[in-house]
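Changelog-adjacent note: as of this version, every example in the card shows the full chain rather than a window. The one below runs 225 residues end to end.
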Amino acid sequence: MRRFARTALPLLVAALATAAGVLLISGDDGSDNGGQPAGEPPTPPAPARTTTTKSHKHRQRTDRPSTHREVHQAVQESNAPRLGPGQRQVARVVRAYVAALDARDGERACALFVPGALSKVDFPRDRGTCARSLSASIGYRDPRGFPVYRSSRIARIPAVAINGATARVTATTVTQFADNREPSVEDDLVYLQKHGAAWLIAKPSATLYRAIGVGNIPPQVLAPP
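Full-length structure tokens:
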């Protein structure tokens, strides 16, 4: 019994000393915020260092809007009205015209024009006929360094106006060029005339001149025939 008392007494003293130390460290200011002075908000922990910031920066570099996205946005900003049956018929001729240029099909493209409408076009490669000259000239590389046509498409037709036997189509056309040049997005004006039961194109538009490598498009393309 005496040996037990002698052993327990030092243990009791040590326990009391430990408790007093804990009270001295944590009980001075009466708060329970881990040493933060009373009345002040807790200090937020420092953010952990991870690779998220680096990955985010890399994503910003690789996700910058590309030229194709800019073209798509420009096309989306143009209006697309609901066309009536007659307007759709006219619009189909214009779509076929641009598709023929894209396919380098001079015969098909020339057939969509009023006879003689392309007689004043100075084809860079003259092959005697409209069809052969146009086919040979599409994609012509002018030695003066003008943009070289690669492809074209109609993204949207914002307007079709019919006035008796004449019509005017506004076609948002995207033209791609060779040598990584910036594409052209423009509202091409295409004028048409009723020729018998069919609609035919009355004069060349800007898209045709771009296709044959003309650097300075005649301003007359904007005026009605």
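Structural remarks: The chain has seven helices and four strands.
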